[in-house]
Amino acid sequence: MGHRPRKRFGQHFLADPGVIGAIVAAIAPVPGDNLVEIGPGLGALTGPLVARAGHIHAVELDRDLVARLTERFTPAQLTLHAGDALKFDFAALGPRLRIVGNLPYNISTPILFHLAECERQLVDMHLMLQREVVDRMVATPGTSAYGRLSVMLQCRFELEKLIDVPPEAFQPPPEVDSAVVRLRPLDAAHRVPGDEALFARVVTQAFAQRRKTLRNTLKGLVTAAELAALGIDPGRRAQELSVAEFARLAAALALPEKSA
Description:
alpha/beta; Rossmann fold; Helicase, Ruva Protein, domain 3; 7-stranded mixed beta sheet; two-stranded antiparallel ribbon; elongated
């Protein structure tokens, strides 16, 4: 369409009609949805989303693409926010947010953590990422893909891998396979309670040296005896612990007598 993809923005434009249709069907937008698209690009998803929802928001960094989208869609169809999604205040768009995006693969993890900050205003997110990242997001304990990203997202969201997307579905094709994942916020009864900052510290420290046991990685934070008292074998490694076990550990560390 006359636009030269820019490497510094990680631009790979979705072009396969079948994949586009499958993603839109998974999102199932309806009029009145508070939809926001990250990186609309040339509008491959934007058009079908607008057609179903009537109006959406979009965040786009590339000024040339902002100009193209402004020409193609009316303000009644598209509210365009020119800027960096990593710095954008998604919470300012109001409640019951539905976020859609083909995320730049080079900054996908920071964007995921940024989006997670507005979880209480979310209905769901449908995101396209490098397949390897999606596999890490949905990984289960005891697998090689399970890590800090898995735990920090699964403590907040229900995740479901939906669609594998091959490189040839894009122009230009990326060098990696892609996948679409759905994230839905957990209800209050299933959320990890307590001190979120402490939980994040425990998880980060535990995974800092994956090959070492918890006895070593959590040294200075909790003793081997305290781990055993919680029913957690200090000889296990971080990738063997469930989200619930990390939550139990963080909750114990947050007790007044422990912090004292």
